[in-house]
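Regression test attached.
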Amino acid sequence: MTRLIQRLLPQGRTLVTAVPYLWLLMFFLIPFAIVLKISFSQAAIAMPPYEPLVHWAGERLMQIQLNLDNFAFLVEDNLYWKSYLNSILVAGVSTLLCLLIGYPMAYAMARSSPSTRNILLLLAVLPFFTSFLLRVYAWIGLLKNNGLVNNALMGLGLIDQPIQMLQTDFAVYVGMVYSYLPFMILPLYSNLEKMDLTLLEAAADLGCRPWQAFLKVTLPLSLPGIVAGCLLVFIPAVGEFVIPSLLGDPGMLMIGKVLWTEFFNNRDWPVASAVAIALLLFLVLPIMYLDRAQNTAGEEGEHK
Amino acid sequence: MHGRSWFRNLSLIVGFSFLYIPIVSLIVYSFNASKLVTVWGGFSTKWYGALLQNQQILGAAWLSLRVAALSATLAVALGTLAGMVLARFGPFKGRTLFSGLTTAPLVMPEVITGLSLLLLFVTMEQLIGWPAGRGMTTIVIAHVTFTMAFVTVIVQSRLVQMDESLEEAAMDLGARPWKVFFLITLPIIFPALLSGWLLAFTLSLDDLVITSFVAGPGSSTLPMVIFSKVRLGVSPDINALATILVTIVAIGVAIAGVVMTRQQKARDRDAQMALAANQQMIESLKKG
């Protein structure tokens, strides 16, 4: 009987592995190969709007035309460089702001009593479950010239006339931090919550002041949480489209917006693909790093 | 110590106000009689009425709900398998790639995922004639692909926390792997599946960017309609819609919370009973 199970086991395992594996290969990995392929082709007025790469010339002769124009275009045109750099800047600053706001929150959550902890955790997760689009939209109403924030500031007599906040970089940062904050809080919280508090007692016994203990014990130990949180915010923020297009200046250069415009407005699929490939090349390393970080975290959990 | 707890409370209050004031403001202004969203013109429910008259929004909402229910269910099925593979199967050939493929969709900028899926569908249509055109099928496939990553993470972390000895005990008693999974593992990780389903459902219901790429001309989902309206400015009926969605989500999360607490209590009770039975047995053995 056991032998029978053992013989059946690998088969079952293969099947269980194969189904999600094939799905992800088919609908996540192979598409990138197609994007790469189309980034080498030429735009055409057709449906789909690009020239085929492979031409059949004669009986068995296959011609492949690789067209590097799209990438040359990306390098030559300043618009793309500026968009990439600006996206990285905006994503980097947003990540930093998320960390500065999220760390104290995660710390406070992890150090409160177990019953409050669960309620606070639920409160931090709940925005995840409410529409991202509508939460970004809410900020339009708050930041408008006659919006809630300006009205409140004028009511308090702090300003005489409304400050232009909507359609500025400020609004984009607010929207970014607001939307991505839960992604920062959750990994930090789960890291800080697991921390062995006796280490802090030991530090105190050895004469560490609380802030020294924080800097020398808590902060270094929470580094994996910080790294995971920062990557979870930074990577999707680089390609963000919705927040800059709803809250930012229409002229604000963000690579997600550029890709969207190339695709939907200019109908230039090959250039859009080239933009995507260039962005992907930039993000591959952080994504791999995130994957490795998550795996080590998972293994540590298994050992416990 | 007092100084520090003061700082902690402050950071919690400021942080959570920041997270919740926009949502609360949406709800409050949905009951505003004035069309100017930021000027209070008295209490009114007229925007809810206007919303129920809007066929475009209702049609889009119906499509979005069907897409979300279907893709959340498929995502839970696939994500549970993937979570099992990552948490229980140990090293195997191609594991690194598999783990990368489950992590990457979590963070991949949506414009890239959307564009690549669209190009895949177009190529597939050219090669094998399926999917013919774009619509609900392509949207569901796209949504399953990016939401299953979230389910995988939730299920995997739940399985890692779970006591493996229960599964081993069932195996020792002769249960086949699939039986162990359905009778032992699945009931224990059920709350994780439930929250995975809810998260996949809301992510699908909410997605604008990926959907815009893979949706055909005739299939506008709710976020696509909202986005085209919102681009032109604030409109009060969108506030009403937001309030309805937030309420539905809050109820869903509350129900899930109650179910999970109950399960937890039932488990604790079972554990206590098992412990008591054990103790009795030891006592009787001692006496004997």
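Expected vs. actual: identical. Chain B has a mean pLDDT of 86.
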